[in-house]
Write a structure and sequence with these properties.
alpha/beta
């Protein structure tokens, strides 16, 4: 957000005189009572556009002016108003006027309205709007009217978006990095759904290639009684205790179900293919259980092996060759990916006839396009960064109508886990890494989800287990959930004291909410719908996590400064109305992060 600073020489005009002429006077009362706070921006934009038209009529602005894409954004400080626009600075050149002077003319030409209390001009020409109290009171009514639906929009228009995330190799339990991917992908999916998208969650199983072969020989070695400390242990074998568990189940001829398919252990230590199938199914089930414990589910599970089984990899290569974007060199088949922005051409098929790893990725993403995903989002660890350009290049080289920049990628950085101030790196069961289940068992699902989503995805994240377990204000998820529980406690206290909460009376007494803490809380609540829209549009779920802490802080500060269950009935009803609305927004926001909203703590 651009910093908006007040200027000591700013000009100021009360809202009731914000009219260029009676003919241009427009009343916004009725419209405002039927729309949400994002439409406040829409209404301000319409007011500004009418002001521009007025200046065009007066020949202050050119009649053929093309209005630039100006912004209306929240100010950083309430003393500078609620919302601000840069329109005057953008129009100064075509108007041949100084920005501040033009800002004054734009303000003078604004139609009369009841949305804005006053407007002032600050800095080089920002126009700052101070909303009338009634705007916030109306938004409070919307919160209570819409309940769980409050904050949801329809910018997605019911269009379909595929969100792929986690997509772990089925070679072991999910690690903490997979947990961050799960939290990010699930919260992104929830945000997109909240803004009107038809979201399909997809998990891509990398069940082909050398890692799966290593899994199979690891289980086979365990089944033969060979342990990782034995000299005959495979050099690339997996060493975690879970390998022994899979081997034991295979020898016992147990049956496992993964994605609706039942695979039974054959018990034959020499049948490597049977071992591979059983091991993959076992670890897919293991990962499914981990994700279920994390509150994450998927609509589609896609197997890499199916791309080979169904001939999709070969078909993709043939199409690339047919469209003239390949060549042979040194016995290998190359993609001329430099034609599509890559820094160098890439090998598709090596001289030994095997494919490089990015070719099945191209085939997989082509399948998404063919399945109707006109928008696709792929969430990956940052170590996959090098593959993005070549996959997109491969998709462009297919000449299949796929737009540049498709799919969209969200990359996350690594997670460092601390306990007692020391880094935790390994788990006995997994061997060389800390598992997601370890983290859930120690910190709880809610804390784990919140901590893994709390930072911007491209920032490294430190997960402090001790902090996540603590019941203190320093623990952000506890702090947020405690705000919700506190409201529930206040309502229980009112009932115990025989105090009747009259919501309808509270809605008629909102003018009593006039102290500073109430104004701050009202302002924070009004940000929620636009916050959801922004977080979804920018694919940044951490914005919601951070804002919920701001909302909780505004509530706790209000709670500590004022009594709610006062003798003055009208004031009590007004304050309880405000805190009930706060509880609703906290619940909605926590839900979009996949967190619970406890009624007591």
């Amino acid at each position: 957000m651009r910093s908006i600073c007040a200027d000591e020489t700013r000009t100021e005009r009360p809202a009731h005189v914000l009219a260029h002429s009676a003919a241009r006077c427009v009343c916004y009362d009725q419209r405002f009572h039927h729309e949400l706070i994002p439409s406040v921006k829409v209404q301000l934009r319409e007011l500004i556009l009418q002001s521009i038209q007025a200046l065009q009529s007066d020949a202050i602005l050119p009649a053929d002016l093309v209005v630039p894409g100006f912004v209306i954004e929240r100010t950083r400080s309430r003393e500078h108003g609620d919302l601000a626009s840069n329109i005057a600075m953008l129009l100064a050149k075509p108007a041949r006027a100084k920005p501040r002077e033009l800002a004054g003319k734009l303000v003078a030409a604004l139609p009369a309205n009841t949305l804005v209390d006053k407007v002032d001009i600050a800095g080089p020409g920002f126009i700052n709007f101070h909303l009338a109290a009634g705007a916030y009171h109306t938004e409070l009514r919307h919160i209570l009217d819409q309940g769980d639906a409050y904050g949801r929009g329809n910018s997605g228009g019911g269009r379909t978006v595929g969100v792929e995330f986690v997509s772990a190799n089925p070679t072991g339990p999910l690690h903490v990095g997979h947990g961050r991917a799960a939290a990010i992908g699930d919260c992104l999916s929830r945000l997109l759904q909240a803004t009107g998208w038809n979201v399909i969650r997809e998990f891509y199983y990398n069940d082909a290639g050398m890692q799966i072969a290593n899994l199979a020989i690891s289980v086979q070695a365990r089944a033969r009684g060979i342990t990782p400390d034995d000299g005959n242990w495979p050099e690339a074998g997996y060493r975690g205790d879970y390998i022994a568990e899979v081997a034991r189940a295979y020898l016992d001829r147990e049956a496992v179900v993964a994605d609706g398919e039942t695979v039974t252990g054959a018990g034959d230590v020499d049948d490597l293919d049977a071992i591979r199938r059983f091991a993959v199914a076992s670890l897919r089930r293991e990962q499914d259980l981990d994700l279920k414990a994390f509150g994450v589910g998927f609509d589609v599970y896609f197997l890499e092996s199916s791309l080979y089984r169904d001939g999709k990899v070969e078909e993709t290569v043939r199409e690339l060759v047919a469209h003239g974007h390949t060549y042979e060199k040194d016995g290998a088949l190359w993609l001329r990916s430099t034609d599509f922005g890559d820094d160098k051409d890439r090998v598709m098929r090596k001289s030994d006839g095997t494919y490089t790893y990015f070719i099945p990725d191209v085939a997989y993403h082509l399948s998404k396009w063919q399945r109707g995903y006109r928008r696709a989002i792929t969430e990956l660890g940052s170590d996959h960064h090098g593959t993005l350009t070549r996959v997109r290049a491969g998709l462009q080289a297919l000449d299949a109508g796929i737009p540049p920049g498709w799919p969209e990628y969200v990359l996350h950085q690594m997670v460092t886990v601390l306990r007692g101030g020391e880094e935790v790196k390994i788990s006995k069961r997994a061997g060389s890494y800390l598992t997601l289940r370890d983290l859930i068992d120690e910190a709880g699902r809610d804390a784990t989800r919140y901590f893994l989503i709390a930072r911007k995805t491209d920032s490294q994240l430190v997960f402090d287990i001790d902090l996540a377990r603590s019941q203190s204000n320093d623990n952000p998820v506890y702090y947020i959930q405690y705000a919700h529980a506190r409201v529930c406690s206040v309502l229980r206290q009112a009932e115990e004291k025989g105090l009747v909460f009259d919501l309808q009376d509270g809605l008629h007494q909102l003018a009593r909410l006039d102290n500073e803490h109430e104004q701050v809380l009202l302002t924070e609540l009004s940000k929620y719908p636009e916050l959801i829209e922004t977080a979804a549009a920018n694919l940044e779920p951490h914005l919601l996590a951070s804002w919920l802490r701001d909302l909780a802080n505004a509530f706790h500060t209000y709670y500590n400064a004022h009594q709610f269950l006062v003798e003055d009935t009208a004031l009590r009803n007004a304050r309880l109305t405000l805190v009930v609305a706060t509880r609703q927004v906290l619940k909605n926001g926590l839900g979009l992060l996949g967190l619970s909203a406890p009624e007591s703590m």
